[in-house]
DNA sequence: TAAATTATGTTGAAATTTCAACAAAACGGA
DNA sequence: TCCGTTTTGTTGAAATTTCAACATAATTTA
């Protein structure tokens, strides 16, 4: 567990808590970890939400699949990111999404009730934990709004450019790698893959971007 | 202010707090109210987020408009609903959305910092307030996911049917009124208005729904 | 009540997306 | 390195959406 302290320190849930505090709290919170191989379903749609997940290593995708089999990708999470926190807070009996391991990933699970209700040990910094969780929830709302901003655009071209512009801002750079392959990017933008590929080709011809696989450069 | 106690009691932010407690807290929180006429902009895109808003009467819409002038409606809020809570929690310097009064509406504003940081008076139930705010944030995340579920559908017909099915579930009834006119519904579903009207006509002919203005009945 | 305004429905043409099928390129394991 | 697999690119046809323009209905205002 101690190996992951560096990750936890960067995790917004533990913001402003000392190493010692984090370690003590993990006990109170009854945190446990698990490893999942690539493509393994960590949490599946329809199951009850009880635990908050923290990505300790690797990366995961939040997805949903409708009855026609169309997959929609809601987001990609990396080291230090949390998932399922909103559903766990609400004690939802049926998760509306699945969480899939993108690669071999280690995940920490924390029972949400242990965060919301301070323990008898009276951890002095439990309050900070609650405060942090609130910030995480607020950030998630903003993240989804961003996804709505992207997918509300009417054309594949605009969706892609809106997404890439946001990526560029995040990276403070015009060139960057995205965490999706073509099919995944299409499922995130909610468009057809072949149409997306065609659009990327056009943008390349128009001199608007360079691109090689998941590397993009805006010109 | 006292007239609105009935609304505040139903407001999730004050869940599980007694009337007296609510009244006491409003003082500590330095809550203030304001009235806005129909179509008035309560908060505008780009301005800093400082206050949480509570709809005391009337209703408001959360909207965003891109540089081409395309309006996107993120949601419709009624009596007792909160808005801007995520942005205020994050102390965002530039709100990504606007909030517009749908009709003459009275709004209560609370400085988010007063909720997050317990006051010197040591209100005994301040903790409950924080806990409630967390649930509100979690619920908002779920609300946005629902909007994404709707707009991720590829055709106008599917978007509309997904939306109406969710409405029917919420109302526990196959017939209900929606809070949107045609243009607003189109802006919420992120589709063209005339195309939406055409699709409604088709669904009517196919015997799948009845509809008169904002009243719908699924068959 | 009539007139003006706003909301909704209808239509056809143009643009775009999806779909299916296949080609080309990149990758991974033996 | 070779081969099989996966990913990406390309294409044309069919379906759908958008757009513009106008007709009709409902609501509001004078």
Could you write a compact summary of the structure shown?
Two copies of one chain form a homodimer. The first copy, chain A, is of the alpha+beta class. Helix content of chain A is 41%, strand content 25%.
* Beta-strand proportion of chain A: 15-25%
Number of strands of chain A: 11
Mean pLDDT of chain A, rounded to whole units? 92
In quaternary terms, these chains amount to: homodimer
Unreliable segments of 5+ consecutive residues of chain A: none
Radius of gyration of chain A: 19 Å
Give the biggest beta sheet of chain A: 4 strands, antiparallel
**Assigned CATH class of the largest domain in chain A:** Mainly Beta
CATH 4th-level superfamily of the largest domain in chain A? Jelly Rolls
Structural class of chain A comes to alpha+beta
Give the termini separation of chain A.
Answer: 44 Å
| Main sheet: strand order of chain A | 1-8-3-6
Set down the secondary structure blueprint.
The structure is a homodimer of 219-residue chains.
Chain A: H1 5-10, H2 19-28, E1 32-36, E2 41-43, E3 51-57, E4 59-65, E5 71-78, E6 82-83, H3 85-90, E7 98-101, E8 105-111, H4 112-116, H5 126-151, H6 156-171, E9 175-177, H7 182-189, H8 193-205, E10 209-212, E11 215-218
Antiparallel strand pairs in A: 1-8, 2-7, 3-6, 3-8, 4-5, 4-7, 9-11, 10-11
The first copy, chain A, binds a DNA duplex (30 and 30 nucleotides) through residues 154-157, 181-183, 191-195, 197-198, 200-201, 213.
What does this structure look like?
Two copies of one chain form a homodimer. Chain A is an alpha+beta fold and about 220 residues long. Chain A has two domains: about 140 residues, Jelly Rolls (Sandwich); about 70 residues, Winged helix-like DNA-binding domain superfamily/Winged helix DNA-binding domain (Arc Repressor Mutant, subunit A, Orthogonal Bundle). Helix content of chain A is about 40%, strand content about 25%. Chain A contains eight helices and eleven strands. Chain A has a four-stranded antiparallel beta sheet with strand order 1-8-3-6. In chain A, β4 and β5 form a beta hairpin. In chain A, α5 packs antiparallel against α6. The longest helix of chain A is centred in the middle third of the chain and has 26 residues. The radius of gyration of chain A is 19 Å and the shape is elongated. The relative contact order of chain A is 0.14. At the A-B interface, α3 and α5 of A face α3 and α5 of B. The first copy, chain A, binds a DNA duplex (30 and 30 nucleotides) through α8.
């Amino acid at each position: 567990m101690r190996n992951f302290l560096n990750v936890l320190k960067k995790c917004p849930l533990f913001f402003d808590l000392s190493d010692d505090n984090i370690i003590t709290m993990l006990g109170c919170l009854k945190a446990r970890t698990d490893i999942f191989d690539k493509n393994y379903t960590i949490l599946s749609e329809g199951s009850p939400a009880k635990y908050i997940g923290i990505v300790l290593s690797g990366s995961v995708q939040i997805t949903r699949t409708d009855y026609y089999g169309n997959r929609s990708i809601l987001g990609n999470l990396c080291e230090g990111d949390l998932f399922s926190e909103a559903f766990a807070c609400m004690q939802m009996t049926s998760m509306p999404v699945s969480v899939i391991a993108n690669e071999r990933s280690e995940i920490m699970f924390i029972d949400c009730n242990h965060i919301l209700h301070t323990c008898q040990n009276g951890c002095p910094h439990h309050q900070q934990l609650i405060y942090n969780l609130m910030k995480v929830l607020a950030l998630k709302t903003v993240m989804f709004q961003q996804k709505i901003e992207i997918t509300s655009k009417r054309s594949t071209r605009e969706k892609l450019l809106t997404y890439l512009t946001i990526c560029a801002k995040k990276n403070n750079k015009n060139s960057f790698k995205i965490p999706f392959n073509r099919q995944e990017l299409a499922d995130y933008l909610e468009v057809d893959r072949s149409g997306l590929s065609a659009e990327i080709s056009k943008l390349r011809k128009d001199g608007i971007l360079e691109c090689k696989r998941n590397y993009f450069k805006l010109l």
